[in-house]
Amino acid sequence: MKKRYGILMGLLVAGFVFAGSVSDSQQKYLKQYKKQKNHPKPSEQLVNTDKEPNLKSGFKSLFNGKDLKGWVSEGGHCTFEVKEGVIVGTVVKGSKSTFLCTKKKYSDFIFTCEMKWVVDGNSGVQFRSYVKGKKVVGPQFEMEGFKRGRGWSGGIYGQDCGGWYYPLWLKKHKKARAALVKGWNRVTIYAKGDVVKTWINGVPAAHWISKDFKKGVFGLQVHQGKEGKILWRSIKIKEL
Question: Sign of the C-alpha dihedral, residues 126, 203, 45, 9?
Answer without folding.
Answer: positive
